[in-house]
Amino acid sequence: MTEYVADLHDIWKIYRKPGTDVEVCALKGVSLRIRRGEYLAIMGASGSGKSTLMNILGCLDQPTRGHYILGEHDVSSLPDDQLSEIRSQSIGFVFQNFNLIQQLTVVENLEVPMFYQGVRPAERHERARALAERVGLGDRGDHRPMQLSGGQQQRVCIARALVNDPLILLADEPTGALDSKTGLQILDMFDNLHKSGTTVVLVTHDPNVALRAQRTIWLQDGEIYRDTANEQSAVSAMPIG
């Protein structure tokens, strides 16, 4: 088992503006290593490259050049079908706007990724129920997203991200759509997931959120200009279940 779950070396990402010959360099030679079990925050102003970096980390996009080793795989230039398979096996995503299927119940939303992984119906239903229980929604399994609060919907998203026991849990502004009290409860969940050994990468614009991580990197104009270890603040972590 390698020490690093993600190893990015000299990553460049260059986009061409549609209909023009104008090129935009979103990432410029980014090198980054993420240790197994690490809690990392990514910060930067709009246009700094943090969304592009997140997309590459999550295998949603590939670098123009450079190498990205995810676990034991070089995913830098894999064909789309292989990249999609590795993404489904190795990455968990938590989004700001939840991205839940409104017509499905909590349990059914949690079963969706397992359906595509070929998990048998009885097993995926049992696992989905257990995940709902894990994030404190054991009594909400038959509710649809519109019947849940914003914080409860984000708990479903976190449970969904854990379905594949991911190498990396990627969270993009996970408290952005929540009030401050609910946001703190969600951040407590990430603290507990990290304590249980999950590798967490969180994109945020809020320095107070970033301070909860072990380490913060700042992006500016497509480059890492600061990479620091955080002094662990005294945050009261709330049990997940």
Q: Which features would summarize this protein structure in a list?
A:
241 residues, alpha/beta, Rossmann fold, 6-stranded mixed sheet, 4-stranded antiparallel sheet, 7 helices, 27% strand, disordered C terminus
Reconstruct the topology from this structure.
Elements: E1 4-16, E2 23-35, E3 39-44, H1 50-57, E4 65-70, E5 73-74, H2 80-90, E6 91-94, H3 106-116, H4 121-134, H5 150-161, E7 168-172, H6 180-195, E8 200-203, H7 207-210, E9 215-220, E10 223-229
Parallel strand pairs: 3-8, 3-9, 6-7, 7-8
Antiparallel strand pairs: 1-2, 1-4, 4-5, 9-10
Helix pairs in contact: 3-4, 3-5, 4-5, 5-6
Through-space gap between termini: 29 Å
Question: So what's the overall shape?
Answer: globular
Major sheet: 6 strands, mixed
Our count of domains comes out at: 1
The CATH topology is given as Rossmann fold
Would you mind describing this structure in some detail?
The protein has helices at 50-57, 80-90, 106-116, 121-134, 150-161, 180-195, 207-210; strands spanning 4-16, 23-35, 39-44, 65-70, 73-74, 91-94, 168-172, 200-203, 215-220, 223-229. It has 241 residues and is α/β, with parallel strands linked by helices. It has a single domain (4-229), classed as P-loop containing nucleotide triphosphate hydrolases (Rossmann fold). The two termini are 29 Å apart. Mean pLDDT is 91; it is low at 233-241.
Give a nutshell description of this structure:
The chain is an alpha/beta fold and 241 residues long. The chain has one domain (4-229): Rossmann fold.
